[in-house]
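User: I want to check something. If I give you two sequences, will you return the structure for each one separately, not as a complex?

Assistant: Yes, each is folded on its own. Here is the first sequence with its structure:
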Amino acid sequence: MALSVDLGSATLEAQSCYSLGNTYALLRNHSLALEFHSRHLAIAQQLKDKIGESRAYWSIGNAHSSLGDHVTALKFAKLHLAVATEIGDTKSKAVAELNLRDLQKVVDDRTGKSTFLVGDWQVKS
């Protein structure tokens, strides 16, 4: 990562942050993973890199989920879905939809609420 900063390449820095975030996630250091994924998001937004932004939202959501903050993870899953839909990335959109369903179930189980997803509609009981 130091090399990418020395070279002044925001693109390389973003990729380094993404890779380091994934490495720390594998090492189960989710706080540090979250830090690097958040840096990746900021750079992707600066570069107007929607694919990078989509990946960063997914990764940040996963980090929050691993830290037990499923409500925040759900917010990032919604952002991931919005960007994936915007750029027409069908695979990323499918992943985001699955994440949303799983996270919504966890949140509902913890709050005692129920959410039923019917197409693009959510019905809460």
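And separately, the second sequence with its own structure:
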Amino acid sequence: MNSEGVCRRCPKAVVMLKHTGTGNYAPIEVAPSEKGNIMVDRQNGTYTILTKGALQKARDKGHPLHLNHFASCEYARSFARTSASKTALAPVGTQIPHERRQQIIDSLASDVCGACGRVKRRRMSHCRACYYRLPAPMRTALYREWGHGYEEAYEASIEFLKGRSVAA
């Protein structure tokens, strides 16, 4: 995934590289920085975060060091996953009336998204567009089993999507 591009929020050139230890991808700034602490291997599409002695050795040898773009982008907080994880889900066991449970079942059997009215696959909670508007923890919660949190997760997703869905 060694794809070079520009940050979605600011004009900095970044490249998505894979961390050699964790395997996680991160946006690394293309231009070297004096404040950099990241050694980049563009051949393999990887990066390594240098600390203490290794960082000083790399600087002494004149190796170009880079920054994780999240460390310098003024809009970095808008990309943070923590805000999505704070989205409230109803606790499992919340009393959902029988009539509403039947509506949720009907929605699953339907090919119309209950949030926006677009076409969706049967047995799916939402259309693709609405599903990807949900924060990751909320999407994950939609995989709970019926009677073990699915209904609550579905209700929370509908509430979240109110006013956020794309026009049909």
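Because they were folded independently, the notes below concern the second chain alone. Strands lie at 4-6, 13-19, 25-29, 38-41, 46-49. Residues 83-88 have pLDDT under 50 and may be disordered.
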